[in-house]
Amino acid sequence: MNYEAVIGLEVHVQIKTQSKMFTRVATGYGHEPNTLTDPVVLALPGALPVMNKAALDAIIKAGLLLGCEIAPVCKWDRKNYFYPDSPKNYQISQYDQPICLGGSVEIELPASARNLMGEHKKIPLTRIHLEEDVGKLNHGATDSLVDYNRAGTPLMEIVSDPAMHSAEEAYAYLTSIRATMIYGGISDCDMEKGQLRCDANISIRPVGATHLGTKVELKNLNSISFVRDGIDHEIKRQIAVVERGGTLVQETRDYDGQTGTSQSLRSKEMAHDYRYFPDPDLMPVRVDAEWKTRLQAECPELPFAKQRRFFEQYQVPYSLTSVLVWDRMLADYFEAAAQLAGPGKAQAVGNWIVNDLLRELSRGSAAAVGDAALRPRSPARDGGLAAPADAHALATSKVRPAHIAALVNMVDAGTVLTNAAKEIFIEMAATGDQPAAIAEKRGLCAAPIDTNELETWCRDAIAANPKAVAEYKSGKDSAINALKGPVMKAAKGKANPKLVDETLRRLLAVM
Amino acid sequence: MSSKLYFRTIADLAAALDAKQLSSVELTQAVIARTQAVEPRIHAFNSFDEADALAQAAASDARRAAGQSCGPLDGIPIGLKDVIAVTGQPLTASSKMLKDFVSPYDATVTTKLKKAGAVLWGRLNCDEFAMGSSTENSAFGPTGNPWDPTRVPGGSSGGSSAALAAGEAIATLGSDTGGSIRQPAALCGVVGLKPTYGLVSRFGLIAFASSLDQIGPFTRTVEDAAIVLGAIAGHDERDSTSFQAEIPDYRAALTSQRGPWKLGIPKEYFAAGLDPEIATAVEKAIAFYQSQGCEIREVSLPHTQYCLDTYYVIATAEASSNLSRYDGIRYGHRSAVGKDAVDIYAHSRAEGFGPEVKRRIILGTYVLSSGYYDAYYLRAQKVRTLIRQDFLHAFRDVDALLTPTSPMPAFKIGEKADPLALYLCDIYTIGVNLAGLPAISVPCGFTKSGLPIGAQLIGQPWKESNLLAIAHAYERAHDWSAQFPIF
Questions:
Q1: What is the pTM of this model?
Q2: What is the pLDDT of residue A336?
Q3: Which of A469, B28, B89, B94 has the highest CB neighbour count under 10 A?
């Protein structure tokens, strides 16, 4: 029998705020244990939570970016359970009235080739709610230590409908969410720092069936490749159980990415009763239209929309936009350069950025780059084109959009030739000097060619290659290339190819 | 006025301090000496720190000498219930769970009292985690009523009422979740004010039931209550349930607001179970207001019979969650026998909490459980709304309600072994908390056996000025607050 997997993801995203969700203590990663605490974080007797409005702003923005309906009131509930990483032994969360309802995440699936656009889908969302993160347990041989630095960090939980059917879709979903959050300035989504975490609910059913099978919750998918591998593994495990004639049980399983195996954590019978009730310490907060309008104005254009617009507005092909749009800074950089370069030159600008600038940047910051898979890139790609720019490297690069625009225009005007332009680019990246100044200083300008001399060279080439001339005349346009070689040779490589082309065609036309 | 410094009022002592007839050190020494003398019989304090109090008093005297007095509370010894955080002082909630806990921070009321120059004096006994009506639930032993130390002082703020009545402080703070300020005030013959929910910040108050808890003063007079309330009230950005409003001059309002007022008498508060001597004393208070030209109306609060049930669902539900932080992991009592986290929780909580606290945690956990939430918690919240509407409806016709504070005078320690019998102590006070209203208990007489009786005035939300003025009018015409326990 053929089976179909049904997958829903619960994605936790840490919101990038200065201070914690319910107190003024700073958020942070990598600090001395238990230094980012105060009476509220440690749940000392008498401490009270007060909501951080910046976190509410961020989740509303996330909701607006993903097309969610924003609830008119932000209401808080307590989720009660005992665990040492949870100082109050309840988590302040949102139960029956999440701040964001509905919405969807646009994803792109891989196509048959890298330079082709893959299928796009919209994965519907159930809800997004806001809560506080817990502390971190460090287990030793005989004891366990708790670090409460992370406790109380604003955290949003993005819950999808059970609407994905492959690990590939789940992977594309997660990368799209990550790009959206980074674009919106909502989170840095660094999985190594726990800023993005994912649990998956997975079930299988015979292809064509409409009921939902017994679901298994897979936890600890704590790297982006573990998400894909773990889901793949779980789908195969479930199919194997059913094929063996076994029965699946509703349970929570822990995936170990190192060994590629999973273990049961607890069964449905052991599920918690969280005893949710409205938090009496926190007044509900009204979110009015004015508030939403203000945040809507701060919402950036998302990568897929940008990709569509770059194609329509600048005629830049997918092979370039699929690299350019996944980093907001890179996309903005491209657009600035394209605007400066002027109409019709965007593709050349894109080529310089994707092929040359990114190579220079990755060379300059190879040490700082780390796990390339953790940085934004097209969801449809894995190890795709050039590695996207390291944000810091791009921001500090000596090559600014105006440099690229100037260089593109010099090549277009024939002032410099392509090979010379490549040399100019490398020096520009090292010094930040203007391309015209570099060309001047290093004598890389295409020599101003006497048109009479060029015409003589062209006539000589035509006379010496009757076969190519005949082919051209009979309609084989590419035959003209056989004539260009001798001309360029005579010009010692310094003739403007565009001018050579024009001159040859003019002379051939009157023959 | 008493010749004894420790029985005098804030208003009177502040005048003496300003006139340099008295120093704060002298006053504080008198209070300390009195405390040391009577504590063996009263046990109002869980702990006190004489050196710290005297240092505060000396600092106050220095301020006054430099002409920088912070106002009427500067140099006045004020005791705090042991559920209000003071930096560097124990904060036990009268529980074994927090026996050795020292607060690293100040509650907002503490900060405000420090700014007002008050001498913070001692940690006052109470029912464990403020759960009870007799202070017998303290892990550190019961407090005696100064009028008869074999009797309870009421509760849960029994240490606060007893210390004040015995002259061990000039004023005290307590907390009131279902009557925990007003009932002990009545049983000890002092004034106790529970402000409108949200008027005084709860930051730094150990939570029992967050939607009901409110800090308030115990004082000898209504005027003193106005002085202390003025110092502790006001918006606090660290408590999101605190109200954003300008705080009026409550003391000035005592004389500027003159009435005559319309007073409502809720008929449900004079039903069976009310001690006849208390009924008589309260009726005399009603007659007094009538004689002053006030209009007296009988009103009905038809949902009164549901107050107790509603309260014990909501308060215990919130408490079960609020008290889950006491788990032996980060601070507080940790069992020596726990082997892993769950084991540590179970043993630490079993050893650290007393029987009444456990009873309420279990009840609260039950009412919030899956499948029971709608039937208990949700329904109780709906009834709570009806109870509040009863009061607001009555306030369309009257300025305040006048009732007994407690259905019975102080009873013997150990007399009420049945928890349900104890819960009945709060039947006249609990509705006020459910409705979030301000209410004050003022002394209105004594039983034949010499036990104090209190009358409760319930005011409209945020109209503490009016409520205090009404209470003040009664107090000026009576001398109950000038009587002191003899021992």
A1: 0.90
A2: 97
A3: B94
